[in-house]
Design brief:
Shape: elongated
Helix content: 55-70%
Low-confidence stretches: 1-5
Radius of gyration: 28 Å
Structural class: alpha+beta
Strand content: 15-25%
Distance between the termini: 106 Å
CATH topology of the largest domain: Alpha-Beta Plaits
CATH architecture of the largest domain: 2-Layer Sandwich
CATH class of the largest domain: Alpha Beta
Largest sheet: 5 strands, antiparallel
Order of helices and strands: HEHEHEHEEHH
Mean pLDDT: 83
Strand order of the largest sheet: 2-3-1-4-5
Oligomer: single chain
CATH superfamily of the largest domain: Ribosomal protein L10, N-terminal RNA-binding domain
Number of strands: 5
Length: 181
């Protein structure tokens, strides 16, 4: 053991770098956070929320992460890997990790966001907070589906209305003829 950490051999380091590089290559958004003294239960709860949103949360060794970032969309963040680093990566919804983190950090001092990269642009904590206020991909999909369904509902009503009116006219005429008998 060295400095409280287990030695990782060269092959394991190369494997970690390779796996991280593959994930970083797919990432649309990455957030660097600094967890400070979070207990296991809290970290597991946070990881669960991220997993449900299809977001990766990893505590990374800075030197390995810097090497893995080379040639990926995350490379502009590589110089920011200092101190204890949590790397949060999303591969489709760039808003989800921001929403989860901002919600998690409310009233907490044991986790800070250092930097983030969204679609190739570096942003800071204020940028992540602004991103968290935007609708997520699921919410946008719901809105689009309702927009698409709304005109179809209106068309169905308009198509059905003349038929209803005709039925009402015929029914009224039938009633009128019955009264005359």
């Amino acid at each position: 053991m060295k400095g409280g950490e287990f030695q990782v051999n060269r092959t394991e380091k190369e494997q970690v770098i390779s796996e991280l590089h593959a994930l970083m290559g797919k990432a649309k958004a990455a957030i660097l956070g600094e967890p400070k003294g979070l207990d296991v239960e809290t970290v597991n709860s946070l990881r669960r929320k991220f997993r449900e949103a299809k977001v990766d949360y990893k505590i990374v060794k800075n030197t390995l992460a810097q090497r893995a970032a080379k040639g990926t969309p995350i490379e502009p963040l590589s110089e920011k890997f200092v101190g204890q680093t949590a790397l949060i990566m999303s591969y489709s919804d760039v808003v989800a990790p921001a929403k989860i983190l901002v919600d998690f950090m409310k009233g907490r001092e044991d986790f800070t966001i250092r930097h983030a990269l969204v679609e190739g642009k570096l942003i800071d904590m204020k940028g992540v907070e602004a991103l968290a206020k935007m609708p997520g991909i699921q919410e946008l999909r719901g809105r689009i589906a309702s927009m698409i369904a709304q005109p179809a509902t209106k068309v169905a009503r308009m198509v059905g209305t003349p038929g209803q009116q005709l039925a009402q006219v015929l029914n009224a005429r039938k009633d009128q003829l019955e009264k005359q008998k």
